[in-house]
Amino acid sequence: MRAIAALLLLCACSGGGGDGGGSPAPPAPPVAAGVVSGASPFAAGCGGAGGTVYVNAEVEPSIAVDPRNPDHWIGAWQQDRWSNGSARGIVAAATFDAGVTWTTRQVPFSSCAGGELLRATDPWVTFSPDGTAYQAAVASSGGTFGAGSANAVLVSQSRDGGLTWSTPATLLRDGASAFNDKETVTADPNDARYAYAVWDRITTENTGPTMFARTADGGVTWEPARAIYDPGRGHQTIGNLIRVLPDGTLANLAAHLVGDDASFSQATLEVIRSTDHGATWSAPIRVSDFRPLGARDPATGQAIRDGSVIPQMAVAPGGTLYVVWQDGRFAGNHDAIALARSADGGLTWSAPLRINAEPSVAAFTPQVHVRADGTIGVSYFDLRSDTADPATLLADYWLARSADGVQWSEARIDGPFDLATAPLVDGALFLGDYMGLAGAGTAFVAFYARTTGDGANRTDIFARRMAVTAETGSAPGAKGAQALSAAGRGADFDRRSFENLRRAIDARRVR
Fold it and tell me: Is-contact 188 165, C-beta < 8 A?
């Protein structure tokens, strides 16, 4: 058992005006901050060979808050990331005192933690209304589509708040002919019997359907995995994520990409719906065109592996759905954070709005959550603090919040920090394809990775509890979101976006 003090320093960090017009920054709200991760628990030499392993580097965290206790949180992350795909394993941490102390555990998803397959990636956690916690991951051995390789989607559960975890259930396992990727698991907040897992399954036949598995008995058993949306040959989904509306309707979000191994030719965000706990599903409903460009160091061109292919979605207490993603159409040469919403359960969607405060720099890797009081929160990174010095790449982490999805204010969660010292994955700087954001009573909890400046411990996982309110258009520091012009950016812009999506998908493979 390893307990880590989270420091919980009340931070007077500066807030973010950042509108590019020299207006004074609004005062920062009270922030509690703490380091959650520690030294690697894994033995040297485990996790196979090939590539560079960044020992002590933690990336790509997820977090969930117990619906019965706002001081009880569970997070998980990749531990000891490899440069050529996945990590030595997944570490989970639980706190019962709102981040003052943490207890960490290693779930046997990978061989380093007692599992069968060598590596693990894509951790995701969720709480059932009865307090049962689920944790999902993808495990693999060997290179994607390589001879003798294997990969599987696994789910473990905890019935004591994250102190112990069950032997993972295998939802689907494949060999060299298919690659299961980017799973998420969502416990039904209305019915503790149900939890739903979704992911994409890329095959050597150039297909990528949305796969689905569910438990209807609180995790005792899982039904066989099946495809719930198969767009056919030359198509794939990515970033599948289920949210449950107050009336029990399920909405699954995914990016739908069209193309081949050379390039994509179309990309959209879509949802499918189920009104019977996932037994049957609707036809896809278009949310928006999808045009991320991906982030780079503006001085050197160094690529940043960000959330380009991973849209995110949250549901408000009243049932409104919010989707956020990276999109280059607002500026034409770098990504902004786009948001669309649906007030009718995903049947129709608003036009995208840009919600990041500083439009002149790249913003990336957004996450969205809606608190119980209806306050919308969106966290993201941007490069507004960066300088012309090519030796550093200064990034900040922000929390934007809104009461209506139109007027937004923001506060700095963390930074500036030097992103240039992050682990390199497939040649790109990597903190994760997503970060964690949750609500704890009247506060947001940001659960995120950032660099440390220590070459032997390149990144750590941090938790910050931010007691911020939603601000209206009349409040100091509130800014209106920018509507996306109806005019397209042209064929060259689309080509650059599709090339970025192709690179981002290719980088997900284990080599």
Answer: no
